[in-house]
Amino acid sequence: MLAAAGRGAGETDPHILMAKHLGVGWTALAATLDVLKGLVFVLAAREWGHLDPDWQALCGVAVVVGHAFPFYLQRMAGRGLAAASGVFLVLLPVQMVIAGLIIVAGGYARVTGLASTIGMGSVPFVAAIQGQPGEFVAMAGAIFAILIIRRLEGLGEVTRRGISPGRAVLYRCLYDASQPPDKLNPWRSREGKLPQ
After folding, report:
1. Pick from 63, 41, 44, 45: nearest CA to 54
2. How far apart are CA 98 and CA 109, in angstroms?
3. CA separation for the pair 148, 131 (Å, rounded)
4. What is the pLDDT of residue 36?
5. Are 119 and 105 in contact (CB under 8 A)?
6. How would you class 93 by CB atoms within 10 Å of its CB: exposed for 0-12, middle for 13-18, buried for 19 or more?
7. Which of 113, 107, 105, 109 is nearest to 13 (CA)?
8. Domain boundaries in the chain?
9. pLDDT at 195
10. C-alpha distances in angstroms, 157 versus 1, 16, 52, 121, 123?
11. Cα 71 from Cα 129, distance rounded (Å)
């Protein structure tokens, strides 16, 4: 599995590879542990460390950076969504529930990449609208930026397939994919045709 992993397209994400090679049970366990990683560190900063909101926000950003860009096992680094979810569940729970519902709906529609972009991108906006502390709004924006930067690591692979750099950025940032959105259409048949 390590040989299949890479820092490129979403298809090489550790959770996707685990589902493919080890099954859904192990994948669910790994994803749960990644969410708990984000949750526990920020909860400890707030409850045991009694840190101010600005330090809690900084701790949240640091957890996601460490998850997405670790100094060890870089080829098996996550995309950051699970760790970010744990951070948001502690500091911005209502906003994370809204994001989670969007992601789940996207999963049912088979457009998870787009749904995760919309869901996680909504967190800073919903937090600002609901009057959350500025530190948490800034943290949510920074975490979303980290998620997008992590997705951009697959650009070289996409452009080598003959896709223009502008379209490659769009596919990676918006869809977390290496292909045009029409190939991601859930209503497309196995032959690649849309139903009439």
Report:
1. 45
2. 17
3. 25
4. 94
5. no
6. exposed
7. 113
8. 10-184
9. 40
10. 19, 18, 42, 25, 29
11. 36
Q: DSSP of 165-176, one letter per residue?
A: HHHHHHIIIIIS
Query: Which tokens in the block code for residue 61?
Result: 């950003």
* pLDDT tens for the 196 residues of the chain, in order: 444 444 444 455 665 666 677 767 777 787 788 899 899 999 999 999 999 999 999 999 999 999 888 877 666 667 889 999 999 999 999 999 999 999 999 989 888 889 999 999 999 999 999 999 999 999 999 999 999 998 888 787 778 888 888 888 888 888 887 776 665 554 444 444 434 3
- The answer to whether 72 touches 90, Cβ cutoff 8 Å, is no
Alpha helical stretches, state H, 45-189: 53-68, 81-91, 93-108, 112-129, 134-151, 155-160, 165-170
User: Are residues 10 and 154 in contact, defined by beta-carbon separation less than 8 angstroms?
Assistant: yes
Amino acid at the residue 72: Y
